[in-house]
Amino acid sequence: MIGGAGSIVLVLPDGWAVDTDRLSNAWGSKTVKVPRDLAPGKPLLMSYGSLGMGKLKVRPPNRFEQRGSTI
């Protein structure tokens, strides 16, 4: 994952988790609002790379996004 100077937003379904320990952020920032511990049978996303001046935001779906979900 390379953020450069842009923004990356990941919207993860309930139960999914993300590990951002291998993702470096020089001037960029990362915000993770999903649990690091995943639910049984759900995936763990491993992210690595550099954000540079970019931003990474990982969040659960909002109410509007959940309503249309088919996962």
Unreliable parts: none
> In which range does the helix fraction lie?
under 10%
How many domains? The number is: 1
Strand order within the widest beta sheet: 1-5-3
Task: State Rg.
Answer: 13 Å
Tell me the β content.
35-45%
Q: Ends: how far apart?
A: 24 Å
Task: Summarize, please.
This protein has 71 residues and is mainly β. It has one helix and five strands, in the order E-E-E-E-E-H. 7% of the residues lie in helices and 41% in strands.
Q: What brief labels describe this structure?
A:
71 residues, three-stranded parallel beta sheet, single chain, two-stranded parallel sheet, 5 strands, mainly beta
Give a verbal description of the structure.
- This protein has 71 residues and is mainly β.
- It has one domain.
- The chain contains one helix and five strands.
- Strands 1-5-3 form a three-stranded parallel β-sheet, with no helix packed on it.
- The longest helix is centred in the last third of the chain and has 5 residues.
- It starts with 6 loop residues before the first strand and ends with a helix.
- The model has no long low-confidence stretch (mean pLDDT 85).
Which helices and strands occur, and which strands form pairs?
Blueprint: E1 7-11, E2 17-24, E3 29-32, E4 44-50, E5 55-59, H1 63-67
Parallel strand pairs: 1-5, 2-4, 3-5
